């Protein structure tokens, strides 16, 4: 699943092909959620990238951009 925002509106797309999903996330600077067997196995943030240009794991933040610790509820 790819999630992205444009003009303050959230969008989502379901894809079965990982290469196509990565391309879509890359173009939209979106979040890629990998679901295997009904469980989330990976969440990658294509807006935040490391020095090599690879997406970083998504993090939970509050509205001010600060990291939030604890369970996601």
Describe the structure.
There is one protein chain. By secondary structure, the protein is of the alpha+beta class. Helix content is 15%, strand content 41%. A five-stranded antiparallel β-sheet has the order 2-1-3-4-5, with helices on one face. A hairpin with a 2-residue loop joins strand 1 (2-6) and strand 2. It has one helix at residues 18-28, and strands at residues 2-6, 9-13, 31-36, 39-49, 55-57. It starts with a strand and ends in a 16-residue tail after the last strand.
Annotation keywords:
73 residues, alpha+beta, five-stranded antiparallel sheet, 1 helix, 5 strands, 15% helix, globular
Task: Set down the secondary structure blueprint.
Layout: E1 2-6, E2 9-13, H1 18-28, E3 31-36, E4 39-49, E5 55-57
Antiparallel strand pairs: 1-2, 1-3, 3-4, 4-5
- Percent of residues in beta strands? 35-45%
Average pLDDT level: 85
Number of helices: 1
Largest sheet: number of strands, sense, barrel closure: 5 strands, antiparallel
- Rough outline: globular
Strand neighbour order, sheet with most strands: 2-1-3-4-5
Instruction: Report the radius of gyration as a whole number of Å.
Output: 13 Å
- Percentage of helical residues? 10-25%
Structural class: alpha+beta
Secondary structure: number of strands? 5
Q: Which series of helices and strands comes N to C?
A: EEHEEE
Amino- and carboxy-terminal Cα gap = 20 Å
């Amino acid at each position: 699943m790819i999630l992205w925002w444009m003009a303050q509106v959230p969008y989502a797309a379901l894809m079965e092909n990982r290469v196509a999903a990565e391309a879509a996330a890359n173009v939209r600077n979106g979040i890629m959620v990998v679901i295997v067997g009904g469980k989330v196995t990976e969440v990658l943030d294509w807006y935040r990238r490391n020095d090599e240009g690879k997406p970083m794991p998504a993090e939970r933040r509050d509205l001010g951009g600060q990291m939030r610790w604890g369970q996601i509820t």
